[in-house]
Amino acid sequence: MIGRLNHVAIAVSDITAAAKIYSDTLGAKVTAQVQLPEHGVTTVFVELPNTKIELLEPLGENSPIAAFLERNASGGVHHLCYEVEDILAARDKLVSEGARVLGDGNPRIGAHNKPILFLHPKDFCGTLVELEQV
Ligand code: CO
């Protein structure tokens, strides 16, 4: 059901410094910062030949990554995003197998203007999983 690894997301407390590490130290292609107030994050994408790295910095008071950064002060891997062809069919199959979808269970529009869902980390080997319909 899942397809390509779309991106690995890394939560950081300073996205400008993190983007510089990827562009200058690691020599990768890095996009401009984009603020997503409805998701409580500022994002930058690092474009690699076979996937992307999503850098996430908290934005606003109730950022969903604020607590994660309190536990991981120097940043850390926050989630993995897998591509699916039909996000509603994927959700229904996962729910029927007992997996928990975060939020109200309905897809939202993510950083690439495509429908996304997040799955409970306790159901997926301790890893927060994002599904993106491509
Ligand atoms: Co993501």
Give the class-level CATH name. Alpha Beta
In round numbers, the mean pLDDT is 96
Helices and strands, in N-to-C order? EHEEEEHEHEEE
Number of strands: 9
Number of domains: 1
Blueprint of the fold:
Blueprint: E1 5-11, H1 15-25, E2 29-30, E3 34-36, E4 41-47, E5 52-58, H2 66-71, E6 76-84, H3 87-96, E7 108-109, E8 115-119, E9 129-133
Parallel strand pairs: 1-5, 6-9
Antiparallel strand pairs: 1-6, 2-4, 3-4, 4-5, 7-8, 8-9
The structure holds cobalt (II) ion.
Task: Walk me through the structure.
By secondary structure, the protein is an alpha+beta fold. It has a single domain, classed as 2,3-Dihydroxybiphenyl 1,2-Dioxygenase, domain 1 (Roll), CATH 3.10.180. 20% of the residues lie in helices and 35% in strands. It is built from 3 helices and 9 strands; from the N terminus they run βαββββαβαβββ. Strands 1, 2, 3, 4, 5, 6, 7, 8 and 9 form a 9-stranded mixed β-sheet that branches. The longest helix has 11 residues, at 15-25. The radius of gyration is 15 Å and the shape is globular. The model has no long low-confidence stretch (mean pLDDT 96). Bound molecules: cobalt (II) ion. Cobalt (II) ion (CO) is lined by residues 7, 9, 54, 79, 81, 130.
